[in-house]
Amino acid sequence: VRASSKVSKSPSKVWRLKYRLHGKENRFSIGAYPDIGLKEARDIARGARRDVANHTAPLKAKTSKIEAQILNEVRTFEYVAKQWLAFKSAELVTKSIGV
């Protein structure tokens, strides 16, 4: 597992992590250089190395975390109440909506 920065012909600089999982070499893009500094890139790489040690692809782990966060945000009472109100507003009397 090796972390590095890649500078290509284009002016963009990207942090990447090279790793081997299930006998196959892969790369995980950590992010662009000015947006993500060295310390943060190292922290993200450490977490990705933990994922590889647990036999999980870092991108799959990252996607799962984002999906879980979105799911938690969607399950708030306020969100569900607004969705219900939008769905039922045509049937309700203006007085019951509170407008």
From TrEMBL:
Pfam families: Arm-DNA-bind_3 (PF13356). GO terms for biological process: DNA integration. InterPro entries: Integrase_DNA-bd_sf (IPR038488), Integrase_DNA_bind_dom (IPR025166), Phage_Integrase (IPR050808). It comes from the Bacteria. Keywords: DNA integration. Signal peptide: none annotated. Belongs to the 'phage' integrase family. This is Phage integrase. It comes from Pseudomonas syringae pv. spinaceae. The lineage of its organism: Bacteria, Pseudomonadati, Pseudomonadota, Gammaproteobacteria, Pseudomonadales.
